[in-house]
Amino acid sequence: MGTLVALEGLDGAGKRTLIGKVETELRRGGTSIATLDFPRYGKSIHADLAAEALKGSHGDLAESVNAMAVLFALDRAGAADRISELLSANDIVLLDRYVASNAAYNAARVHQGVDGEMVAWIRELELGRLALPAPDLQLYLDVPVALAEQRARSREAQDASRQLDAYERDGGLQARTGELYKQLAATNWASPWWIVGPETDPADLARRLADFA
Questions:
Q1: Which residues contact 133 (CB under 8 A, 6 or more apart)?
Q2: Where do transmembrane segments lie in this chain (predicted)?
Q3: Which residue, 28, 140, 144, 162, shows the most beta carbons closer than 10 Å to its own?
Q4: Which ranges of the chain have pLDDT less than 50?
Q5: Three-state DSSP string of the chain
């Protein structure tokens, strides 16, 4: 059985870029790895409904913190079997976002901390009732909020299909979410956590992950 690793961070932090480089380094070193991105836009009705709501569709759906959290949780629940298959076939399964993203963003929306009801509810919903595989390790890509916002807006300008949603446009929410991620990491919420920065050497991180696995 492989090791389940989730990479977390703000929108525009550079998670996809880092995952691609780490994946290349791990394969070069002989470690088998599979990757999966959440939300699964274009593949999951729950993810698509959430994305549409954040861009103004479906009435007041996006205003409900719990409803949005459930949609993102159900998206992951729909991939539970796939995650298990990938873990059976690989040394490492590296996820771009996982349960902690739901905890961080939604606790930030209701101005709670890591010890608040929202974080506990998300954990019980996803790792409890929906029985998603628990992560073995979580990484937080700690990038300044201003830099993440700049990258997200640059991405939007270069690709019309990457229009910023309500979460991405809310700088205050992004800042609070970053603080929540730091609290989750500091308490080793649901697994051990490592904090990595924008200057992280992908080859070094790949070696550390191979040793951990």
A1: 4, 80, 83, 84, 87
A2: none
A3: 140
A4: none
A5: CCEEEEEECCCCCCHHHHHHHHHHHHHHCCCCEEEEECCCCCCCHHHHHHHHHHCCCCCCHHHCHHHHHHHHHHHHHCCHHHHHHHHHHCCEEEEECCHHHHHHHHHHHCCCCCCCHHHHHHHHHHHHHCCCCCCCEEEEECCCHHHHHHHHHHHHHHCHHHCCCHHHHCHHHHHHHHHHHHHHHHCCCCCCEEEECCCCCHHHHHHHHHHHC
Indicate the pTM of the whole model.
0.90
The closest alpha carbon to 205, from 11, 33, 10, 2, belongs to 33
Determine the Cα–Cα distance for residues 93 and 135; give it in Å rounded to an integer. Answer: 10
pLDDT of residue 153: 62
Q: Which domains does the chain possess? A: 3-212 (3.40.50.300)
Among candidates 44, 33, 39, which has minimal Cα distance to 5? 33
What is the layout of strands, in order, in the sheet containing 33-37? Answer: 33-37, 92-96, 3-8, 137-141, 193-196
Amino acid making up residue 190: A
